[in-house]
Specification:
The protein is of the alpha/beta class and 123 residues long. It is built from two helices and eight strands; from the N terminus they run βαββββαβββ.
Length: 123
């Protein structure tokens, strides 16, 4: 049996602000559909990813900003750090660990993300 992770709900307080932020990060807007006054569904996908995020009205009951430790993977952490910084995303300095090199950022609600290069820079 194949099981593929396709979609992660991200709790946000302002849909348009979140959409603009994730577009700045580089995510592609796949859908932005208002179903009713109670439901607006926005789906965005990181470049090269098979898994997307979704947010909007009526999408999740989680508290905005409560999502922690979402992780994406890149081939070059220095390039990712430079590109995110150039896009106006506040990222941490590169954190080298034995299992990979990381930078971290949070969306406007405080949902936290890790960007990992799986091979440590100093390996």
């Amino acid at each position: 049996m194949d099981i593929r992770l396709e979609l992660i709900g991200v709790p946000v307080s302002d849909v348009d602000r979140a959409k603009a932020f994730y577009e700045r990060v580089g995510f592609r807007a796949d859908h932005d559909v208002t179903v009713s006054d109670a439901i607006r569904f926005v789906q965005m996908t990181p470049p090269g990813s098979a898994c997307s995020i979704a947010f909007g009205r009526g999408i999740t009951e989680m508290v905005p900003g409560s999502l922690d430790n979402m992780q994406v993977v890149v081939a070059d952490i220095e390039e990712a750090h430079a590109e995110l910084t150039a896009r106006g995303i506040e990222v941490t300095p590169i954190d080298d660990q034995p299992w990979g090199s990381f930078v971290y950022f949070a969306d406007p609600d405080g949902n936290r993300w890790a960007v990992q290069q799986t091979t440590p820079r100093n390996a």
